[in-house]
């Protein structure tokens, strides 16, 4: 009897073992999936998240790039950034960065849209013109900035030569507070306007002609078609351009470094240039890290807010 | 498979992009603390006190070392010639010279390599500005044990130049290519109008006004991209810049007087304050084009000015003496040092090359080829030294005042202080800033910097 019971128990266990392996098929499948993404996660961890954590850590130290040792100083750097002499440079660079960003967004979106409307014809000559407008995007920023340095030169620049040809006075483009930032935006505009145009053009080509035909039958004119059909259906593209242009423009550095080095009198000192100055001119990695963490938080908040606001104003063509 | 909503995707993209921005900003930030890098760095101060042992500094195995310099392409042949001469005399050491960029670029690269503990050159030039911070941080090796161990004679160097490569009594570098502040002027224009550069600052102001009025050009240009060019005017008036109690006196009445004087020159159009990324090039071009009668610049560019001005003779003058009677200047140019985180074999090879670069044999070659000053006293008495003066008689004004060339202010906060000073000066001179209020703000900020470094 006992033997029979023991045999039955072992048989049950065997069945259970057959039915429920240590790893279920689903868990195993998930684990294999995870192994495939693990290399990417490791890279992301090492090159993105570890530096972020390290950066936060450095912001609480007194690390000077020249020294091998540092100690924790609590909130000293944060206090310096918000209440010390760092505050006015922080607000100044934020103001400059936002002004620059607004300028770049305006050029990319409004300029890109206008050019897209102009070049929205599939002829060979228009294709060639589109290429001309788009090519500057692929010119290295450093090369383009050096060329603009010459174009904007006060005494021997092409721009001032042209102004003087039409009887206007020469302008000290890069050395006046009022003209330095617009000068940097000239270079930016030249590079990004073609990109905005191409993105809008590709989106416009995706809009079904049936909408326009139906609108024509209803007697809509060109302006009405643009505002009632084109613009709403381009809103996902506009959102995409807005977010990507905003984030990339907030990180502007190279053009400012080459054209103005943040001057005159810090009038073009954008946020990333401020961070660079703390890190590589003053060697104050502690202050640079504090400013960088601050910058991250600002970008994060703005991005999330943009997403929330855009949900109410974007029209998806389903 | 669960679908990812457009909103989630866009939000995630935004966050990742923001993270990427942060990561991009954090380059080099992960070097960390003392740890491994520090352990490989020798304690310079400890080394100074070690007993001299010549065998410690011998090169025993073949080695190739790198020299980072800031000599632009026009000096390629000169650099190649000097390096070739050294390599030919060596059986074990091979030197490779690398042009890195301006002093600022070398500084950035050197500090980054030092922080990373890798990619360091065996030997590098450094602007005299950086001696204090490199000495203070131990970036440059203390050369005292090397000098003692190999019985290297440093007495022949000009005393001021030797001092300018020391930090707290330690010889952390050796004098290499040196210059000082001078005024280049259009001698042809001066002779035609019967002008001579005034020897006193109180005569200089009316002189600039007269030049402006008579010739319709700027009397001079004050370089604003580097405070070195104007700080000597403050020092000669008795301003200390950093006082003994570690505060800044650029807000004192004397300092405000100098600032107001320069501003008055600029406001009257008798001079301009050169700032901006192309300020140096623009200033030189204005001189070549005779749009300014004179410029304040470094003596090392004498060859350059002469070669670019074939239509008129270039004169060189000492800065006018201050109201105190002082007419000192400050040393400029660069020193040579050995990064301390290199291994001993590399440092030993670098020391051999460093001695050669600073030696009497090539001292005159550097001076003639570049426009920098000879750094050794004995060279001036040689035939070559006399020929140098015959070829460049304008240098007489420097040789007459060699003992007035002083070392730079040595303070680890100097770099930050200088940046702040330059920025405020730009606001005052070129953005119509008020002298008093801006100076007050500047001093507050500099005092904070000084306290932070104390």
TrEMBL record, chain A:
Major site of localization recorded for this protein: membrane
One of the protein's GO biological processes: transmembrane transport
Domain of life: Bacteria
Domain ABC transmembrane type-1: 94-306
CDD domains linked to this entry: TM_PBP2 (cd06261)
KW Transmembrane (keyword) present: yes
Cellular location(s): Cell membrane
InterPro entries: ABC_transporter_permease, MetI-like, MetI-like_sf
Ranges that cross the membrane: 27-52, 97-119, 131-152, 187-207, 227-247, 288-307
Membrane topology per record: Multi-pass membrane protein
Gene Ontology cellular component annotations, sorted alphabetically: plasma membrane
Keywords: Cell membrane, Membrane, Transmembrane, Transmembrane helix, Transport
Family in the record: Belongs to the binding-protein-dependent transport system permease family.
Protein name: Sugar ABC transporter permease
Organism listed in the record: Faecalibacterium prausnitzii
UniProtKB/TrEMBL annotation, chain B:
Gene3D superfamilies in alphabetical order: Periplasmic binding protein-like II (3.40.190.10)
GO biological process, one term: maltodextrin transmembrane transport
Cellular compartments per GO CC: ATP-binding cassette (ABC) transporter complex, substrate-binding subunit-containing
GO MF annotation: an example: maltose binding
Swiss-Prot/TrEMBL keywords: Signal, Transport
Recorded superkingdom: Bacteria
Pfam families listed in its UniProt record: SBP_bac_8
Position of the signal peptide: 1-23
Family annotation (PANTHER family): MALTOSE-BINDING PERIPLASMIC PROTEIN, MALTOSE_MALTODEXTRIN-BINDING PERIPLASMIC PROTEIN
Entry similarity comment: Belongs to the bacterial solute-binding protein 1 family.
Protein name, UniProt field: ABC transporter substrate-binding protein
UniProt organism field: Faecalibacterium prausnitzii
Lineage summary: Bacteria, Bacillati, Bacillota, Clostridia, Eubacteriales
